[in-house]
Amino acid sequence: MKAKVIGLLVTLSILAPLLAGASTRTSEKPAQGRVRFAPVHVYLDSGDRPLAAYQFELKAQTGQIKIVGVEGGEHPAFQEAPYYDPAALMNDRIIIAAFSTGTDLPQGRTRVATVHLQILGDAEPQYELKLIVAADKEGEEIPADLNLQTGESK
Description:
Elements: H1 2-28, E1 35-45, E2 53-62, E3 64-71, E4 83-84, E5 93-99, E6 109-120, E7 126-135, E8 145-150
Antiparallel strand pairs: 1-6, 1-8, 2-5, 2-7, 3-6, 4-5
């Protein structure tokens, strides 16, 4: 009896990791089977006003995405990776914010962030980009336009 129990435990200890790994591998694949990575560059145009702070939300209206990374912008004031809400990532959306207390601030159109995505399936995602706020160095809200560009070129 003892030998049967030991044999059963040995068999289970060998099969359990194999079965667990097989179910994990198949559940990660999208229905269509295609996985690719792509950057989304986010640009903010503050016109003739210096930009000291911003906050925006990015999500996919259609398509399956996973956010895998965030990097800063092109101007020295925003080159560091911006802050984001990790809880929002669980819903395949991201809320990003950054501020600069420096005196060298961008004016006009500047890339403020690049969001790196894993795109699941063949459908090209349609994005929703929403500006929550843009502000100057005094903390006053300023009018600004927000848009995005997909692809490798910045």
